[in-house]
Amino acid sequence: MTMYQTVTLSLVVVTLFYYGWCGIRLSKKISRASDYLLIARHLSRADYTQTFVATSTSLATALSFFIMFGAKFGLALIISPIMFSLGVVVFKMVTPFMQADGFFENGTTLHQYLKFKFQDETVKNLATIVSVLGYLGIFIIELYVGVKIFTIFNQQIGWQVMIASFLLILIFTYIYLGGYPAVIKTDNFQLKLIVSSIFLLLIVLLYAINHDELWDKVLTKQYLNPLPLSLPWYFVVVMIVGNVPFQLLKMSNWHRAAAAGKLKKTQEALTRGWQFTFIIWLVATLCGIFGGVLADKYGIKEFNLNALFLMLSSYLHSGLFSKFFVQYIVYPLLFAGCVAALISTADSVFIPLLATYVFDLKYQNINIEETQEISSQVLKSTRKVISIFMLIGVIIYVILTYFLKFDFVDLLFIFFNQQLVLFPVVWFALMNKPKSCAKFKKAAIFSIIVSSILTWAIALYGGFYNKPHFVMLSSAVGFLGSIIFFYLRQPKALVELKIWRDFQ
Questions:
Q1: What is the rounded CA–CA span in Å between residue 316 and residue 312?
Q2: Is residue 111 part of a domain?
Q3: Residue 499 has what DSSP assignment?
Q4: Alpha helical stretches, state H, 233-330
Q5: Rounded distance, CA 98 to CA 49, Å?
Q6: What is the distance between the alpha carbons of residues 14 and 504, in angstroms, rounded to a whole number?
Q7: Which end of the chain is less congested by CB atoms within 10 angstroms, N or C?
Q8: How far apart are CA 113 and CA 478, in angstroms?
Q9: What's the farthest any 2 CA atoms get from each other in the chain?
Q10: Model pLDDT for residues 316-372, shown as the tens digit of each residue
Q11: Can you tell me the distance from the alpha carbon of 213 to that of 216, in angstroms, rounded to the nearest whole number?
């Protein structure tokens, strides 16, 4: 291992131990379950915004995705942050409906909201299963990509196992100790690390393009055409379907709203959140474009994050940016930023999962703050279940990656988008009163079960037989299929269908 790689690992270890220290320090201030899970509904606007952006800027779905595909498709990928922003705006627009239903004062999870609306335990349980599986999948994807980038130091399987184990232990430790307050605290630091590293990378790549006189390669239709004409059609479908309606179904969006406890605070944080996320995703895409052009010059094939680190260590150190600066400043900071992006998403997955365990499964009919004794019991039980969720995630990870040989893109689209089967149920719940929703609980159950089976069947078929378009289109099938199945099961639901809710 070279000296600059040793410096890089040292910086990563220091930041990781800082995350652990945050958990240790905050654990002393947590004595109640509501503090651990919801920050007692006092999540500030600034913290809401920062944790939203940090979680959205994941290693897998943002940095890896936009750098890898930006080098191939250029600004055509801008459709993704545009659709993501549109999805967040739509979620913001339905928050008054959540307010009217008392969610900000008394709500806890998306699934409890569905139970309240449909007056049915089965609807809640099915939605819980779908969401939990999806969020475990997000954790798996982050772990998968995180282990992959550490192979720039060592490619042996033992090293990969050690890295995966270390990351799991760290995430477990500070979530176990500090809960949601620790996640918020570390997200604030991680976002600063991510932003500084990605913007520094952009400056270095810009200078390298200019220094090597490669603007003629950049200023081409392949890279600068913002229209999604160069993207495969099924890619475009997934960008739209997997971003806009998906925002209504994310457990973390509902969890942050419950933790904020205020409508205005939530709406302001969502607006700032999508704006900052859009900028970061755009910068990551530009890094992919510039990096891809440079990689072509240096003969690097299959440009991705690992190829980017190879380029930083071996080529981009001339003129203004010396070899020392690139290898000992840019390289370590960018790697630490990538690990921060991994951790910020992975830890934010577990808090909604723990909230689901408490409010949807274990203690759903209990006031967890009724007495200090009950609150302490809930807190103790919640901490214990973290290891169970992690174990389930690791088992799924091993099965999908080492036995079924799924790659990053397959995992990304399978897990992120299978939650789209909940869309008609959630939308119907938002647009109607409990009395109307209760009439259509059979349609909700039928829709979730049938569309889930269909979605996973298509996705697994595409992944197993190496047909990526099947994997990607499984999300659209789940989305459209769930709508069709919902209204076919009980056609009278069409009479109750509302595009927007009337408060009068």
A1: 5
A2: no
A3: S
A4: 233-241, 251-260, 263-298, 305-314, 323-325
A5: 19
A6: 56
A7: C
A8: 22
A9: 70
A10: 876 667 888 999 999 999 999 999 998 988 888 889 999 999 999 888 878 887 788
A11: 8
69, 189: one domain: yes
Number of domains in the chain: 2
What letter would DSSP give residue 314?
Answer: H
137/158 Cα distance (integer angstroms): 23
Give residue for tokens 């979530």. Answer: 175
Look at residue 414 and tell me if it is in a domain: no
The whole-angstrom distance between residue 462's C-alpha and the CA centroid of its chain comes to: 23
Residue 194 lies in a domain: yes
Count of helices and strands (H, E) across the chain? 24, 0
pLDDT in tens, 259-284: 999 999 999 999 999 999 999 999 99
372 exposed, middle or buried (CB, 10 Å; 0-12, 13-18, 19+)? exposed
Specify the 3-state DSSP secondary structure of 346. Answer: helix
Query: What residues contact residue 8 under an 8 Å CB cut-off, 6+ apart?
Result: 331, 332, 335, 336
Identify the pLDDT of residue 196. 95
Residue pair 348/183 in contact by the 8 Å Cβ criterion: yes
The verdict on 8 and 54 lying in the same domain is yes
How far, rounded to the nearest angstrom, does the alpha carbon of residue 77 sit from its chain's CA centroid?
A: 18
- Contact between residue 137 and residue 415 where contact means Cβ atoms under 8 Å apart: yes
Token pair 């990053």 is found at: 408
Task: Please state the pTM of the whole predicted model.
Answer: 0.91
Residue at token pair 């440009």 = 303
Looking at 337, 372, 403, which one is the last position of a domain?
Answer: 403
φ/ψ of residue 251, rounded to 5: -60, -35
Is residue 371 packed enough to be buried (19+ CB in 10 Å), middle (13-18) or exposed (0-12)?
exposed
Domain range spanning residue 497?
419-504
Residue for token pair 């430790």: 173
Position 105 in a domain: no
What's 115-161 look like in SS3?
HHHHCCHHHHHHHHHHHHHHHHHHHHHHHHHHHHHHHHCCCCHHHHH
